[in-house]
Amino acid sequence: ESGQLMALAVADGQPLWNLALEPPLTSAPSLAKDVLYIADGDGELVAAGIDSGHVRWRRNLGTRLRSRPAVDVARKQVLAAVDGSLHALSADTGEPIWEADFAGLPSIGLFLSKKVVAVGSTDHSLYAFDAASGRRMWRCDTDGIIRAAPVGTDNTIYFGAGDGWLHAVDISDGSMRWRQQLDGPVLTSAALTRRSLAVTTELGTTYVFAP
Theoretical Cys-Cys bridge with 122: which of 13, 66, 105, 174, CB 3.0 to 4.6 Å? Predict the structure, then answer.
């Protein structure tokens, strides 16, 4: 709640540096090529060097960032979702690249593949956009809020929802590949490996599926 971001030495836990940001910090930072990208409580996305905490740039997006930023290393851009919009910024300078709209509040994290970025929403839908241009590709509607970050591969996106269903959709058009009813709402992200997909419901039950 203090808004302090602290770096500790792996070997002994000693503090290395401390960066004061606007509280509250409600999402984890993302790391790419020795740069941390952090969303603060005042609508700013901040880029800071991992070695010293030196701030490289700040960009105010107008409203509180609710999702963990995603870094597209290939395109040198960082993606951040705020209430009703998704932003792509230059990872080097913070300059805007594109902005796309969606309804509701975003999930706590984004899914990013080579070509697609997807965000869940409190309006019960998963939205997918072209990562290069921000063009909306498709929308998949469910009967519950999508709070957890989607996960996936280059072919399929998996996500749970507040309606108690686990969904698997085609990444190209959002069509339903399969879905499975669980014993309660899904509020946390699934864990995906090459051989299994694990998801836990609000009731504490963990399910494991073949993806």
Answer: 105
- Domain membership of residue 129 (yes or no) is yes
Domain for residue 165, yes or no? yes
The whole model's pTM is what? 0.92
State the DSSP code for 146.
Answer: -
Does residue 132 fall inside a structural domain? yes
CATH number of the domain at 163, please.
Answer: 2.40.128.630
Per-residue pLDDT of the chain (211 residues; tens, 9 = 90+): 678 888 999 999 999 999 988 888 777 899 999 999 998 878 899 999 999 999 999 999 888 787 899 999 999 999 999 989 999 999 999 999 999 999 999 999 999 999 999 999 999 999 999 999 999 999 999 999 999 999 999 999 999 999 999 999 999 999 999 999 999 999 999 999 999 999 999 999 999 999 8
Counted domains in the chain:
1
CA 115 to chain centre: 15
Length of the chain: 211
Give exposure, 174-187, as e/b (b: 16+ Cβ within 10 Å).
beeeebeebeebbb
Which range marks the domain in which residue 114 is found?
A: 109-211
Cβ neighbors of 13 (< 8 A, separation 6 or more) are none
**Rounded Cα distance, 61 and 123, in Å:** 21
For residue 28, tell me if it sits in a domain: no
